[in-house]
Structure formats: structure tokens, C-alpha cells
Amino acid sequence: MENKMMLYNGAQHVTEGVCAMPKKKILTEETEGFGERLVKLRKAAGFSLRELAAEIGISHRMLVHYEKHGGHPSAQLLPTLAKALHVSTDELMGTKQVKENGRSRDNRLWRRFAQVEKLPAKQRRPIIQFIDAFLGSEKARKTG
Questions:
Q1: CATH number for the 34-93 domain, one of 3.40.50.150, 1.10.260.40, 3.30.1330.60, 1.20.1250.20?
Q2: Helices (H), the chain
Q3: What is the pTM of this model?
Q4: Residue 130 CA to chain centroid, in angstroms?
């Protein structure tokens, strides 16, 4: 019987029989691991470690494990994590390049606006008045 090459975790092995399908090639830089990618996406979304952990419902320690020690989240957590970071699961896992949307916005600020938006109108009113007063004084300072 003829020997055939088989790829297994990036190493070549000579085996008898049928060759296995090669693993899907990851599109991101070879040196970037899941943890590094997660840090980059978390910071781009404007989350601190504690904020993101609270947002997705896991402990701060678990998120640190994913970022620093090369751990990977469970399959059930991936969609929640991707949604919080505003990326696809493929982008999160590195099988697809993260789309740059060309806009530069403070996601941390926009998350807070979304929280304020969920408040009842009576509670939103003083926040809006404060923002209006601040922006008015800032405009006066710049023109005066």
C-alpha cells in the first residue's frame, strides 16, 4: 500500500490510508492568538476587562484567563462575546478579517447613551439638561 502525507495540527505525518483534510487557515497574523485578538477587540469597543465581563455575564477572572493565558470561551459564549464587541464570531476567532468601518467613535460613550435611553423620560430629563448646559457653556467658551 502506498504511503500518503497527512496534516495534523500543522505537522506532517506519513500514514497509510486516506489523507485528512487540512485545517482551515486562519487569516490573521500567525503571531496573533485568541487572547491578543480579544484584547484588541475589547479595547476597540471601549470596554474595560470588568465592563466586558459584566456585559457578557462571566467573571473578571475568566476574561483575564481568555486574554492572558490562551484560554478559549465555550461555544455558547462566543455569540454573546461577538455581539458585545460588535464583530462576527468568525472575526472574533480570527478566521475572517475584522472589518474596519472607517468611523471613529467612542463606544464607551455610546454605550452610556444607550443606557440613558432606556431610562424613563422623567429620569432622562435632568441628564439631557446637564448635557445641553455643558455643551452650551463649551460653545460659549470657544466663541468668547
A1: 1.10.260.40
A2: 34-44, 49-56, 60-68, 78-85, 89-93, 107-117, 121-143
A3: 0.56
A4: 32
Rounded CA gap, 35 and 25, in Å? 18
Distance CA 66, CA 106 (A): 24
Please provide the average confidence, as pLDDT, over all residues in the chain. 77
pLDDT of residue 77: 94
Burial class (CB in 10 A: 0-12, 13-18, 19+), 113: exposed
Cβ atoms of 68 and 35 within 8 Å: the answer is yes
The closest of 46, 48, 75 to 64, measured between CA atoms, is 48
Q: Please, is 95 exposed, middle or buried when counting C-beta atoms within 10 Å of its C-beta (0-12, 13-18, 19+)?
A: middle
- The rounded distance, in Å, linking the Cα atoms of 108 and 21 is 43
Q: Residues 3-58: pLDDT tens digits? A: 444 444 444 444 445 455 455 544 444 567 899 999 999 988 888 899 999 999 99
